[in-house]
Amino acid sequence: MDRTVFRITGTDRLEFLQNLVTNNVKGLETGLVWAALLTPQGKYLADFFLVPEEEALLVDVATPLAADLAKRLKMYRLRADVQIEETEVVVTRGTGPAPEGALPDPRDPAMGWRAYNGAPGDDTDWDAMRVAHIVPESGLELVPGDSYPLELGFERLHGVDFRKGCYVGQEVTARMKHKTELKKGLVRVAVEGAAPVGTEVLAGDRPAGVLYTQSGGQGLAWLRFDRADGPMRAGDATVIWDGTRP
User: Fold this and answer.
1) How far apart are CA 56 and CA 11, in angstroms?
2) pTM, two decimal places
3) According to the model, what pLDDT value does residue 179 have?
């Protein structure tokens, strides 16, 4: 698990993030908060866990997204009393008994706990766990600038708050919630065979989506629902969706 952890300090840190991210930072009073930073057009840029600390908070983000996230946060900082520094904190996780100081993963109880104090993790098959519970991963199903958070399950996984007020991309996200029915999204599919992550899914000769993580004859796929009727192909694999939306 390749993660980078930033520490954010300063008297304006909570208000600063509250005005930027999809979730309500007041949730830090009870544990971890999973949130995302979006483009002004409402598309996904990065997701991360916010971690409570005394007089500070941590930002736990996938390392490939870390440099761009830090750059964007500093761009939005302006004159706010906010300092952002990279740390050497190591992230561990597991699904067994939680060690002292570990915090529950807020996305789904099945995703276990996360720790930031050096506690050892365990050998959970995370791909199988994510496929079973339709939990997207940074750099796999979650691709910057490629799709919208509601299509990726952020509402179901407690990653967006519709009552918190404005944030970057909020208007588009709220419109998708209240005025439209999602026509595309991340679902679990049956997979016969295998294909590389990111393989295009075809319904006949028409593009129908993208196949991502696979485990135990199942996988995660982002599909156009109107084209996902019947067996589909992803490279050498057969993909079948039963119509169930999470």
Assistant:
1) 9
2) 0.95
3) 78
- Closest to 57 (Cα-Cα) out of 94, 25, 93, 81: 25
Query: pLDDT for 147-202, tens place per residue?
Result: 899 999 999 999 999 999 999 999 999 999 987 789 999 999 999 999 999 999 99
| Token pair listed for 201 | 């899914």
Closest CA to 8 of 102, 68, 85: 85
Amino acid at site 189: V
Q: What is the DSSP letter of 186?
A: E
Kindly state the helix (H) or strand (E) to which residue 113 belongs, with its residue range.
strand 113-115
With contact defined as beta carbons under 8 Å apart, do 222 and 172 qualify?
no
List phi, psi (to 5°) of 48. -165, 160
User: Which strand ranges, in their side-by-side order, compose the sheet holding 113-115?
Assistant: 92-94, 113-115, 103-104
Enter the DSSP assignment of 29.
Answer: G
Tell me 225's DSSP state.
G
pLDDT digits (tens, 9 = 90+) for 73-110: 999 999 999 999 999 999 999 999 999 999 999 999 99
Helices assigned H by DSSP within the chain? 13-18, 63-77, 126-133, 170-179
Q: Mapping DSSP to helix (H, G, I), strand (E, B) and coil, where does residue 174 land? A: helix
Rounded Cα gap, residues 192 and 197, in angstroms:
14
